[in-house]
Every structure is written in structure tokens, then in C-alpha cells.
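U., I forgot to send this yesterday:
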Amino acid sequence: MYAAAVILDPARRVNGLADSKVLTPGRREVLAGRIKERAVAWAVAQASVEEIDRINILRASLLAMRRAVEALKIEPHEVWVDGQICPDLPCPARAIVDGDASHKPICAASILAKTARDAEMRELHRRFPQYGFDQHKGYATAEHLEAVGRLGPCEIHRRSFRAVAVFFQGNLFSMAESLRSRGYRLYCEAMKLSSMTKRLDDFDDFVLLGFGEFGDLNNKGVKS
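Result:
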């Protein structure tokens, strides 16, 4: 789980800031460089897979946000947080729903967090090329789940995610690979159907690994 905090400099504008989700990876990289060069202060922080498993992904995201704010070289007067919940901070904070689409400091933080996440995914792909981390970026795509069903989870997969936890509740590896893959695919399809009535379970439907982002702080944004 990655989070970033940014204090923009009004005298050194960064043109093109937008919700990181609508920007291409290449454009995010260009803007990340400009943000780091022109911002008054910026910081990127993270919460580990172990922390996510221990305290859940929501609390881990708040922890990563707090670490990003605390890592700023300048203490902000107020923190703007993308979403509905603010982390526990020593300064005032305001939660802004969809803030990464409307507030430039949060846009900037979102870009830094996402580019840091993407860099980590590329490194994980080098370590575990069979899972395709460079493509799905840790999200629970069909391709990612197929690889997990075929190979089993690796050390970076968080055990608190239901599609990974099932591997530690029974001896799936006693099955032939084809049977295990088919059974796992059926399990994931059933899990997807059940989630339609309970859309979120500590954000389990969002990220398989636990990497995300957070926005601007003094007009300070925090984004996870």
C-alpha cells in the first residue's frame, strides 16, 4: 500500500495534473518528475503486506497516509485527504470524496503514489515473472487469479485476501494442476457473485496485493 503527500508551490505550476487513473503510465511518469522538481515538499510512504494482513487494508492505507504526511519536510497547516476517512494526524485534516479528480494537490499525490506502486510492480515482475505483476499491477484481474490458481500465491500476496486465504485453508496442492486451476476459478467466480450483495469486505475486491496510492497538503494532498 503506497501513499503520497504533496505541497504544491503556487509560483511553480505543474500543468496537466489530473486524476491519476485517467492518465497513461507514460504521462504519469512525466508529471511525477515535474511534481518532485517543483513542489514545496513531497513524500511517498507505504504499509507492508504484513501490516495489511495484521490490521486490514483500510487501516494500513491510513497508516501509509500518516507516514507520508509525517515524512514531509514542512509541517502542513491542513491536510486534504482523498476519500471519506482521514488518518490520525497532528494537524487538521479534511476528507474529500473524489478529491483526486477535483483538487490539484491530491491529483499530484495520487500520481506520485501510483508511479511508486508501478515501479514496485515492475520490480516484483522481475522477481516473479510468472504472475504478470507488470501488467495487472497487483489487482485481482482474471489473468492474475489464473496465475495464482495455477501456481499458488507467492510471498508478496497478502493472506487476508479471500482469494489467497483459501490456499491456506486446505491442501489445494494435493490436486493435479488442471483440477486445482479449474476448482480455483470456480471458487473465484462464486466469490465474485457473493460480493455483489456485499460489495466491499475491507477493500478485498480492490487490490490483491495491497498497493494503492494517497494527495496535497497545505493544500496538502494525501492520496493512497
